[in-house]
Amino acid sequence: MARPTLAVWKFASCDGCQLSLLDCEDELLAIAGAIEIAHFPEASRKSVAGPYDLSLVEGSITTPEDAERIKHIRAQSHSLVAIGACATAGGIQSLRNFADLDGMAAAVYPRPDYLDVLATSTPISAHVPVDIELHGCPISKYQLVELVTAVLAGRRPRLPKFAQCVECKAHGTACVMVAEGQPCLGPVTLAGCGNLCPRVGRGCYGCFGPVEGANVAAMTARFAELGLDARQIRDALRSFTAAAPAFAEGGQGNG
Amino acid sequence: MDGAAPMLPVRCRVASAQAEGADVATLTLEPVAGALSGGAPGQFNMLYAFGIGEAAISLSGHDEAGRPMHTIRAVGATTRALTAMEAGAELGLRGPFGTGWPVADQAGRHLLAVAGGLGLAPLRPAILAAAAQPGAVSVVHGARSPDTLLYAGELSAWAAEGTPVYLTVDHAAPGWTGRVGTVIGCLPPALAGHDPAAVSAFLCGPEVMMRATAQALSDAGVPPDRIWLSMERNMKCGIGLCGHCQYGPDFICRDGPVLRYDRIAARLTLREI
Amino acid sequence: MAERTIKVDALARVEGEGAIKLKIGPSGVEAAEFRIFEPPRFFEALLRGRDAADAPDITSRICGICPVAYITSANQAMEAALGVTVTPEIAALRRLLYCGEWIQSHVLHAAMLHAPDFLGLEDAFEIARLRPDLVKTALRLKKLGNELMEVIGGRAVHPVNTRIGGFWRAPDPERIAALIPELEWGIGAARDMTLDFAGFDFPQDEADYTFVSLVHPETYPIELGRIGSNRGLDIGVEAFAEHFAEEQVARSTALHARHGDAPYLVGPLARYANNFARLSDSCRDTAAAAGLGPVERNPFRSILVRMVEVQYACEEALRLARGYVPPDPPAVVAPRRAGTGHGCTEAPRGICHHSYTLDDEGRILSAAIVPPTSQNQKQIEDDLARVAGRFLDLDDAALQWRCEQAIRNHDPCISCATHALRPTIERV
Amino acid sequence: MDFATDSAVTIDGPQQVVRLLREDGWRVIAAVERDGALVTREIASADALPRGRVDELGPGHCRLVDGPPGRWFDHVIGPGGWKEWLFPPREKLWSAQREGQAVTFDDAPQPWPKTAFFGVRPCDLAAIARQDRVFSTGPGDPAYAHRRAAVLIVAVNCARAAPTCFCASMGTGPRAEQGFDLALSELDGRFVVETGSTAGAALAARLDAIPATEDDLAAAAAMSRRTAETQTRHMPAGIAGTLRSAPEHPAWDDVAARCLACANCTLACPTCFCSDVEDVTDLTGDHAERWRHWDSCFSPEFSLVGGGAVRASTRARYRQWMTHKLSSWHDQFGESGCVGCGRCIAWCPVGIDITQEARALSTEETPA
Ligand SMILES: Cc1cc2nc3c(=O)[nH]c(=O)nc-3n(C[C@H](O)[C@H](O)[C@H](O)COP(=O)(O)OP(=O)(O)OC[C@H]3O[C@@H](n4cnc5c(N)ncnc54)[C@H](O)[C@@H]3O)c2cc1C
Ligand code: SF4
Ligand code: SF4
Ligand code: SF4
């Protein structure tokens, strides 16, 4: 049986999610043995033409060309997996969605007229159908290995659908909101990172994006009780998954 | 079932695999080592596809050699893997679990088996048992379309042997001259000639279909404590430990899946229970 | 000689997306372009109005390969603006974390992205088939770097445990101590790998670079020092903008940094040349055994300098791990106030400079971030032209590969070049 | 008083109990302070106990602060507890190997050293008994039984109730009646030790102790009475029946607007037992494992069937949790699933209070 082929693609992003693949030091050679890495420019000069069994797509869509390019990638991919906060929610660069793009461009570039960019940063799913999403800024390399393993085994990858709190409780991490009064987005954030922030005594900043059915209104009401003003509440929701609908709406009502 | 390790599957082999349509297959299983406990009509086993997962699958009968049979529809990864298995493939089995159809208790009464879609699979062993008494059972079976009627060959055989069989489809196809509509439409003809008070009914199918059917039957005079439904809920352990299959106070895996209508009639009217 | 065009539309084995284009005419190389086509992400703009504390985490997302560089430069800039100084224990833990990033990033580049060039292979997976031991050692070293980052930072990419003034929680001493045996191994492994790579057949090349790096009287600079050069520059990090300017070039539209009027080089070659005397004896010994002098001007040999730095980072990490005292409290409280602050640290690819101005609530009024790759971009282009000119006898395929190498020599991190945008190039 | 007090003794402090247990080879687990909360960990000596510390608890609130100096057990309970030992958050059920067609299974039990739970509060004793029943009903869970059989329990009667405690109204505390090997009551500067099993009696006999006097026993009883009297929360009477007839009560919508569906309440609850299983494979695809991990009726996929989640709304999920806990549990196991420990109140990030929600649903207690 031929090994399934893998392609890795990049859009507006920091490379951190695809780096997570190279960070699977213990599994990398086994992965490279089990699947054919057909297109992965960050790691290899070699590029085999499509179609591909599995495409990992990092980054968000921010330019007209990229909005076209993703369609070609979709057409060549049997299974398309969006990896990371950029690809699943628009990433940190989606903060532009809430601001005036021209003003932003002028702030960074002496000649903003050279730029050809879209007014918004949008997730891959806003442009083409996506089969699976790996969340996080960056993704968890354990979830990435699980994805590859599940694809090889023909099963659904185990990707939690519940809130970050479940990981904290299972891990025995004290709730930073209850025990320290720190604002934490964990209750409305998808699990998967391994409760990294609360484990170091820090409130979750929501990098895995909202959990399904997130009750952001109740969450932000609690933040207000903890002493955050409207602007702080808005900024708390506006980080790496700011454009995810639940967080975007929650931010609208504040600040 | 091995009482010491209720979560550990027994190693089984597919003795034969029979396609029942596009995405449905019946597997006959035999243990590779050791023995399987029998299992009564209405009970289910947890079938494990290696590395993929487990699914609750009802017994759809036993073959002449007493080997359990399961009819499975491919809806997700596990059931896809199970339905793709060929003779010789190995899988894990835990069970049997749950309550069965109270077939023996219906002696002297007329049994009406009402099946929606794949719901005919768990009813099949009950129908076969009841059919030992000529004229004791009638079968109502509804399907989406004529080509998704389950056990089509067996249905004709039953009819030929004198068991009344009423078929209906949601969407007719060219050449279909039978009924079109829900199973409710089959109930008046199926009940005709029987004293409803002396009729017992076993229902299996989608929850909405069972709710409407049970209501219609009791409206027609079939006693609510003579109607049984086979319920479905998410299920992970099969032995009342995982909590997933709770339906009000009942664990579907342990107190069900076959539950008596009068016990759950109120619950059936509640949303999201 | 006929006109030749060498084009690489999507450079491989670099972080981020870039392209090169060379035009060669009868008189030699007529044009050499190194283009960066990362879509712009407007970091400076989207920081405006945010609390000072948001800057380290947000700027970390400029680059997933060297997040600690961004986090540390931003934290230092904010501490300067807010007028706080961290304790020696916090400073030591910071340096230890940074060592993890150096090890991880350098080994990734040297062994997995750069080494294949010298072996004539497409990638590290091909090396793994021929020299599995080499790739396994490299992965183990890289993992060591990542483990340092995970133990201290919470995760390897975009660590979560850092904050202005220090850390959220000091790592358990047992977890730091558990890394010691592997660090002891790492020092030797890095040395062996340096000597192994020293046997590569390096193309002859040399350039008279202006080397710019941090300089420090006592230590090889990682997260500390003034900004200095081999041409006599010696300034505090707050004076960066007076000496270095960024400009936007229409052709490639990346912001190019210049020192006065000339290009300059940051990164391992610069750090090494400017701070050779600060390396440990054992690292200088490895350098000598690998044939490196106190200054290395052949960019193709930067792989060796990178590996010497890996050895140094392992030695430093070992020293810091052995002397680890959990900072208590883990962070110095930084009260909000108005101010301007600058921070500059040595990312694996060179200096990463941040400056921020805050209002009296500690909100960001303006931000300026100069990553290493945009500083090197002009120099890389010059390298490209020079290398192409030097190897014109090669056939197109070989010349193309050699030119790609000229870029990869500098481990450019195109994701870092946040100020860039992408010209229309059809790919896929 | 029952037999336990007949043989009661007094000792000067808990150190010797821990020492004795360790000498006898028990792994001693106790509540210690970690990152601002009480967590159960193995301890080497009584020095690790959070002596002099108390937990200020309220809805969605916990702070560990200094309490009366020298007092050993004036704190109450942390978010976790004994559940995570007897019913671990993640547990391998078995592994399987494939060779060609052949699939073989292996469920070698995980090693479990003999373990002493030190400082179990009465509500948690009741909670352990609840889970004992759950995990032994039907074919039961042999792994749980295996662990449970090797557990010795040293209970501590509560001298202080937190504002979140309501064990008195659940009949589970604040004094331990059964289910322990030893039970300690902390008086001023000394402890009354009662025995509840032959193993406990054997241990007590080896303590450096003096027989308890009538006064000691009276003081211990008075302490428990005082603790009960200071409880400010209680569960409305007849809540099991109330919930049976309240599935469409408007109060469910009200709580659903506040509830985050984050599952903290269920995971902190010492009786909640729901779990999920996951199938793990390696990259070769020939080795598979089945793991069980905690789940919650608040999880989006908990009630998934073919057509989607049965309980899609937070209203339905909260109703399931509370109705199961306070009502269906009686039908299933003949008792309440709530022991009044108050964890779900303290560790709910938004401070939802099960007793107050119960009151909102109770017709009998609605203020006129
Ligand atoms: C008592 C009982 C008897 C059943 N009898 C049969 C039968 O005879 N034939 C048949 O084809 N099907 C039967 N089912 C349904 C069958 O169990 C599900 O279709 C199957 O579990 C779906 O698993 P999957 O991984 O293939 O599907 P997926 O769509 O991949 O399922 C996704 C996930 O949904 C969950 N899920 C969906 N439905 C169920 C369910 N009913 N129970 C537990 N988890 C579920 C699981 O977590 C599963 O991993 C029965 C179900 C029950 C409860
Ligand atoms: S705790 Fe939250 S912010 Fe932190 S890593 Fe996890 S998902 Fe991201
Ligand atoms: S329901 Fe709440 S008070 Fe009752 S036992 Fe569970 S956590 Fe404790
Ligand atoms: S009641 Fe509280 S703890 Fe429980 S799910 Fe709702 S918000 Fe979370």
TrEMBL record, chain A:
Transmembrane segments: none annotated. Keywords: 3Fe-4S, Cell membrane, Iron, Iron-sulfur, Membrane, Metal-binding, Oxidoreductase. Pfam families: Oxidored_q6. InterPro entries: Hydrogenase_assoc-protein (IPR051349), NADH_UbQ_OxRdtase-like_20kDa (IPR006137), NiFe_Hase_small_N_sf (IPR037024). Residues 14-150 form the NADH:ubiquinone oxidoreductase-like 20kDa subunit domain. Its cofactor is [3Fe-4S] cluster. SUPFAM superfamilies: HydA/Nqo6-like (SSF56770). It comes from the Bacteria. Gene3D superfamilies: NADH:ubiquinone oxidoreductase-like, 20kDa subunit (3.40.50.700). PANTHER family: COENZYME F420-REDUCING HYDROGENASE, GAMMA SUBUNIT (PTHR42845), CYTOSOLIC NIFE-HYDROGENASE, DELTA SUBUNIT (PTHR42845:SF3). This is Sulfhydrogenase subunit delta. It comes from Rhodovulum iodosum.
UniProtKB/TrEMBL annotation, chain C:
Pfam families: NiFeSe_Hases. InterPro entries: Ni-dep_hyd_lsu, NiFe-Hase_large. Gene3D superfamilies: Cytochrome-c3 Hydrogenase, chain B. This is Sulfhydrogenase subunit alpha. It comes from Rhodovulum iodosum.
From TrEMBL, chain D:
It comes from the Bacteria. The keyword Iron applies. Pfam families: Fer4_22. The keyword Metal-binding applies. Keywords: Iron, Iron-sulfur, Metal-binding. InterPro entries: 4Fe4S_Fe-S-bd, 4Fe4S_Fe_S_CS, Helical_ferredxn. Residues 248-280, 329-357 form the 4Fe-4S ferredoxin-type domain. This is Sulfhydrogenase subunit beta (Sulfur reductase). It comes from Rhodovulum iodosum.
